[in-house]
Design goal:
The structure is a single chain. By secondary structure, the protein is of the alpha/beta class. The chain is 37% helix and 21% strand. It has 21 helices and 27 strands. The strands form four sheets. Strands 14, 18, 19, 20, 21, 23, 24, 25, 26 and 27 form a ten-stranded mixed beta sheet that branches. Strands 10, 11, 12, 13, 15, 16, 17 and 22 form an eight-stranded mixed beta sheet that branches. Strands 2-4-3-7-8-9 form a six-stranded mixed beta sheet. It is globular and about 90 Å long. The chain starts with 6 loop residues before the first helix and ends with a helix.
Length: 687
């Protein structure tokens, strides 16, 4: 193998897989979980819902961006050699195939659930008694919320909100009257479910079907000639220039309003909608009928299947699971600060270890402990009933200095974060919004405490958000530490975040982006090349959500060409091709899809036998490494390194949930012998 790769080879477009297409490959792996009969039925329904939600977000964020590029005539090729138009065409093709698989998976799943007397059916298929029951339920609880809107010369075409479900109704007031078209928005949300239950509690009828079956209530005396369902998806790329804004909060609120009225990127219509009606909708919404109008056979909007997936029927779910306490925090009569100071840093592994008795306990004790002087924290996303917010407010009430950096531009969380920021400010917390032009994505907390020997800094650095809900669903790691250097580095980082000033800052251990992290990763990859020998080969292992950054990808190619062994555990987007002769023969890429969303980021370098480990918030994506404030922290000490080594090795050896990437970018799920008791890595961690 060559020790280096010529620039002309490194710059070949076919060495880099496409970001959008590799993400769709990931969604295909999620869809496979819905098709896999080894999973319990309602867990498979959950995965169907996740696939639908993923595709909605993909259209809002990625397809919307590509359509913007196409609209302005962008002809510049991506690093993998595609125009926006070519990417759109290939994405649409893959999505159509996935949608067909979705329909087949749902039909198969419903056949299986029929044995449990669980069904999704149309209103028209119910018997007269069940129809009467649902009509009464609809009339008393939902009908007053429904507003029909006719489209004619006196009534312009109404605004259609993002992801709303609608009926398009063709009707006549009399046999000789002109056909009228009416739009009826299906009022899902704010306590109104997508599926209404019949009296048996196991038959579910989509709300749009109930409304369609009772149109005489909305249009008494009219003749209904046609009724079909449609759904609109709008572009979520509405960001404005922060640098020119006088008020960042006002700017974010404006962006949120912009998103409501953003251009449409997809129109889904039910089978049977007339050609004239399709053309009308496409024209009113400014869409190309051929490219952006999709006919859906069956249910539109699979994300709402989560209502059924969460039915409390234990035998149709995975076995119940409850996180355990980290062994070091079992004694609740000791201060968590004493535990960290005397026992050393703690490595946390959620959801297997309790978030409530580790991270939330850390914050709760910090808010109550009379020796704690200050708390500083970054907040990207948190849960609706956030104990984190309560603890921060309690800390301020107790006279402690509390500073919180709230990221207002966390996608789809802006409204909630604005609300939390206001509540914190009212409680006397010092709230800032980070550095202009950069998202604050790191997950860090710094607690300053007056210990017996002076001020001591305690820190939490994690890969997951401060969110109790996702801490039960996402697989993350975190570090609780009193390492003095990490404490000093975090002090420097928070001073940067709260001032926005960019003088040269020195960090002893942390690798923050955008200034240090990427260059450090590239240097560490180069070091593995320099230290590599046939007798003592170099080693790199990276676990991340995505590997998209071109510079990191090319550096890994160079390392592989030099003979360095490289293991990559990449959840979704991955640009690198493993197994290319003379280029990436030592690269192995796996993706793990299972019960919990893999969300941890871990970086390992052999470092000539020093065995360096880092964890943190940064994915190998250009946006994370160049346009966000991220933090990677070293994990030191043989005990913690052994824990991470067990974690990485278990995932690499996963015989159930791991997918191996081939050189062409396709993935194949590992299959163990049917006679073997097969546990996924996640099941191993649970056990």
């Amino acid at each position: 193998m060559s020790a280096s790769l010529p620039d002309d080879v490194m710059k070949q477009p076919d060495l880099l897989l496409n970001r959008e297409l590799t993400w769709l490959e990931f969604n295909s792996r999620v869809l496979h979980e819905a098709e896999d009969d080894r999973n319990p039925p309602l867990e498979r329904m959950k995965f169907l819902s996740i696939v639908g939600s993923n595709l909605d977000e993909f259209y809002m964020k990625r397809i919307g961006g590509l359509m913007q590029q196409e609209a302005v005539g962008l002809r510049e090729l991506t690093v993998d050699g595609r125009t926006p138009t070519e990417q759109l065409r290939e994405c649409h093709e893959k999505v159509r195939l996935q949608e067909a698989r979705q329909r087949e998976a749902l039909a198969e799943l419903l056949r299986e659930l029929a044995s449990q007397e669980i069904a999704i059916t149309d209103f028209a298929a119910l018997d007269a008694e069940a129809q009467a029951e649902l009509r009464t339920l609809y009339t008393e609880n939902i009908f007053p919320l429904v507003t029909p809107q006719v489209t004619d010369s006196a009534h312009p075409f109404p605004f259609i909100s993002n992801l709303s479900l609608n009926l398009l109704v063709g009707l006549r007031d009399s046999p000789s009257a002109t056909l009228s078209l009416a739009r009826v928005k299906v009022p899902i949300g704010a306590g109104i479910p997508r599926f209404l239950r019949t009296a048996d509690g196991k038959t579910f009828v989509p709300l749009e079907s109930v409304i369609a079956g009772n149109l005489d209530l909305l249009f008494p005396g009219s003749t209904i000639e046609a009724c079909s369902v449609f759904r609109v998806t709008r572009n979520a790329n509405t960001e404005r220039d922060e640098e020119t804004a006088d008020d960042l909060l006002a700017l974010i609120e404006t962006e949120m309003r912009d998103r409501r009225f953003a251009p449409t990127v997809r129109l889904q219509v039910s089978t049977g909608m007339g050609e004239a009606e399709r053309s009308l909708l496409a024209a009113e919404l400014g869409l190309d009928r051929a490219a952006n109008v999709v006919e859906m056979d069956g249910l539109i909007g699979h994300r709402d299947l989560m209502e059924i997936a969460t039915l409390p029927i234990p035998e149709l779910h995975d076995p119940p699971f409850a996180p355990v306490d980290h062994p070091a925090v079992l004694r609740t009569d000791r201060s968590i600060f004493h535990i960290i100071r005397e026992g050393g840093s703690l490595l946390l592994h959620h959801p297997y270890q309790s978030y409530a008795t580790s991270v939330e306990r850390f914050l709760r004790e910090a808010s109550e402990d009379s020796k704690v002087r200050a708390i500083k924290m970054t907040l990207y996303r948190t849960d609706r009933e956030s104990k984190v917010i309560e603890h921060l407010i309690e800390a301020a009430d107790n006279g402690k200095q509390v500073a919180v950096v709230v990221e207002l531009k966390a996608r789809f969380e802006e409204e909630r974060n604005i609300r939390w920021a206001g509540r914190l400010e009212e409680a006397g917390v010092h709230v800032t919004y980070g550095v202009l032009g950069l998202k604050t994505h790191c997950k860090t907390t710094l607690v300053v405490r007056q210990d017996f020997d002076g001020l001591r800094r305690y820190a939490h650095i994690g890969t997951g958000n401060y969110n109790a809900d996702t801490a039960r669903l996402y697989a993350d790691v975190g570090l609780l530490t009193a390492d003095p250097m990490i404490g000093r580095d975090l002090t420097e980082l928070f001073n940067y975040l709260t001032t926005g000033l960019r003088p040269k800052r020195h960090y002893e251990k942390l690798l923050p982006s955008p200034k240090h992290c990427k260059s450090a990763l590239l240097q560490k990859i180069q070091r593995e090349i320099d230290l590599h020998t046939p007798d003592d080969p170099g080693g790199i292992q990276i676990k991340t959500n995505a590997l998209e950054d071109v510079d990191v990808t090319r550096a890994l190619y160079r390392a592989s060409a030099a003979g360095v062994k490289i293991d990559l555990i990449v959840r979704d987007t991955c640009r690198i091709r493993p197994g290319l002769a003379g280029i990436s023969e030592t690269v192995r890429v796996i993706s793990i899809v299972g019960r919990f969303l893999e969300h941890a980021r871990i970086y390992y370098f052999k470092a000539g036998g020093e065995h360096e480990y880092f964890l943190g918030s940064a994915d190998c994506m250009s946006r994370n490494l160049e346009n966000r404030v991220e933090v990677l922290a070293p994990v030191e000490g043989e005990r913690l390194k052994r824990d991470l080594r067990f974690f990485i090795d278990t995932q690499l050896a996963d015989p159930r949930s791991a997918w191996d990437m081939h050189a062409d970018g396709t993935y194949v799920q590992r299959k163990a012998s049917a006679r073997t008791l097969v546990r996924s890595s996640q099941e191993t961690f649970i056990e």
